[in-house]
Amino acid sequence: MGFFRVSALAATLLVPLALLGTTRADSKGDTAAAEKLVAKAGQIAQKVAKLRGLKIKKPIDRGVMSKAEIRARILKILDREYTEAELDAESLGLKRLGLIPESTDYVATMVDLLQNQIAGFYDQHEKKLYIAGWAQGGGDMVMAHEIDHALQDQHFDLEAFMSAVRKNGDATSARQALVEGDGMALMLEYQMAEAKQGPPWGNAMIMAVLRKGMSQGAAKMKHVPLALREGLLFPYSAGVEFVAHFRKHKSWKAIDAMYAKPPLSTEQILHPNKYESYEKPIAVVAHKPSGLAGYSEKVSNVLGEKTVELFLRTHGVAEGRAVTAAAGWGGDRFAVYARQGHKGSTLSGTVGVWLTTWDAPLDATEFYESLEHALPVLTKNAGTSRGKVLRYNDADGQVIAEQRGSEVLLLLSVSAGSSDAIRAEVWKRWTTAGHRSAP
């Protein structure tokens, strides 16, 4: 998700091949076909601008990239946008939650995944769109999608739009979903228009086929950890459902308005009615526990409803139950503290603290009861339960979950000798504030 900065490259960067059913090759013929497509881009741009209702303010620069050039560009963007410490922290957060194995080279894994899935991308910084010279199939659709991103950028300034919530991962994922859902919806409308048909949003069968295609595309990436795979695809799959919800009854002007009033959370993307009521997440404010003297904060972010779901699914909770348990999310804060001298993304010497708040005590209970199934998988250990407190041992200490009313606290790898004091202090000093609905 957006909490994971490398995954955030998905925002306006790529159209995954897995979603288009395209194939990959490295031949001069493929490059020639891509170059012909680029030459055709002007015609496609005129059609996209008319469909989308956004004028072309200036010519859209475009080009073709080889597989090696795409990899080099991804690495260049990483170097430009993120420090080594930020990437280490992101990897550490994923590992502390058990979303990827500790042995995973996170950045290399994501770069490989992005490189192998890119069919086309729009570089917000360079203001130029590229088509992969080694992708076959769906060419006009890819071009339409990326031209839509270029028009979004010309009208809504995508770089500023995305950077405004850089420190809030869940809000970043929500904005990604709007941008990519916009691109996916336009791409489908373009395809239908080329077939002399109207927008597909009233046709349940077309949406069912789309969902099936996305599911099959995701299956092609089964070798990738669930959180990374779903994090990559979420802006497209959930985003197009979100945009389709509004396009069924409203014009593109309603989507334009969302760039001034963007979705605030993955909760709003997954439940469009909560965008319509503009239900705001509850802010959770963290304070480093005094029991962690000598530790420093390495990670602090909002995970959101979708990451709650992925956390549960990663640790053995069935998808249907995980989706239900994650619904009712109200807000959260996840932090990782590391002992002085800690380097890289190794787990030894780190403690995780995750406080979630829910719409109602019943929602909190559903999440808490799901943890009874997830934590034995995470810790590879049997736990003990005392009322609303669960305790497990892992390789680095204790994992403790506790529910109090509408809130659930999860401590990861805290030392047994200080666990109770730290737990009590988090309950006392971590605060929740905010309104669930706009005034």
Please provide a written account of the structure.
It is built from 18 helices and 14 strands. It is 51% helix and 17% strand. It has helices at 17-20, 28-39, 41-52, 67-81, 84-96, 106-117, 139-156, 158-163, 169-194, 204-219, 226-247, 252-258, 266-270, 272-276, 304-314, 319-326, 361-379, 419-429; strands at 23-24, 61-65, 120-123, 128-132, 135-136, 283-285, 295-301, 329-339, 350-358, 384-386, 389-394, 397-404, 407-414, 431-433. Mean pLDDT is 88; it is low at 7-29 and 435-439. The strands form four sheets. A seven-stranded antiparallel β-sheet has the order 7-8-9-13-12-11-10, with helices on both faces. A three-stranded mixed β-sheet has the order 2-4-3. With 439 residues, it is α+β, with helices and mostly antiparallel strands. The radius of gyration is 22 Å and the shape is globular.
Structural class: alpha+beta
Spatial order of strands in the largest sheet: 7-8-9-13-12-11-10
Distance between the termini: 29 Å
Share in β-strands: 15-25%
Shape: globular
Average pLDDT number: 88
Largest sheet: 7 strands, antiparallel
Low-confidence stretches: 7-29, 435-439
The total count of helices amounts to 18
Radius of gyration: 22 Å
Strands, total number = 14
The helical percent reads 40-55%
Question: Secondary-structure blueprint of this entry?
Answer:
Elements: H1 17-20, E1 23-24, H2 28-39, H3 41-52, E2 61-65, H4 67-81, H5 84-96, H6 106-117, E3 120-123, E4 128-132, E5 135-136, H7 139-156, H8 158-163, H9 169-194, H10 204-219, H11 226-247, H12 252-258, H13 266-270, H14 272-276, E6 283-285, E7 295-301, H15 304-314, H16 319-326, E8 329-339, E9 350-358, H17 361-379, E10 384-386, E11 389-394, E12 397-404, E13 407-414, H18 419-429, E14 431-433
Parallel strand pairs: 2-4
Antiparallel strand pairs: 1-5, 3-4, 6-14, 7-8, 8-9, 9-13, 10-11, 11-12, 12-13
